[in-house]
Amino acid sequence: MAAVDLALQAGSAPIQAKSIARRQGIPARFLEQVLHAMKKAGLVSSQRGAQGGYVLSKKPSEVSVAEILEALEGPGLRMSDMNGGAYRATPSGTLLAKVWDRVHEAERHVLEGITVEELAGEQRHIEQQRNPMYHI
Hints:
Blueprint: H1 2-8, H2 17-24, H3 28-40, E1 44-47, E2 53-56, H4 65-73, H5 91-112, H6 116-130
Antiparallel strand pairs: 1-2
């Protein structure tokens, strides 16, 4: 949600973490950790000072949910990687490991196809539905 917030505010000055935390209902300390991980992954950049804050390092259309999750949680753990390969020690384990590999690939494919820009557009739509404009 921090990335979506930054996308919604794109074009303006850098956004302070406390502003994102307030709008998104995210605890400030947790958000700082999230933004730090995203910065380390090159997804956001920061500026210090009174007018400082965070901005997306790429266009929202170039940032996928998969990239954000990988920045926050590291490469995805597969069921087939459990127990140092011991999972594949039995024929049924090998079979199930292949199933979980396919599930992981499908999940990754879906997450790679969802961009921050897409989520920001959906968020705008939700906000418009919640706050309809009345014309007199």
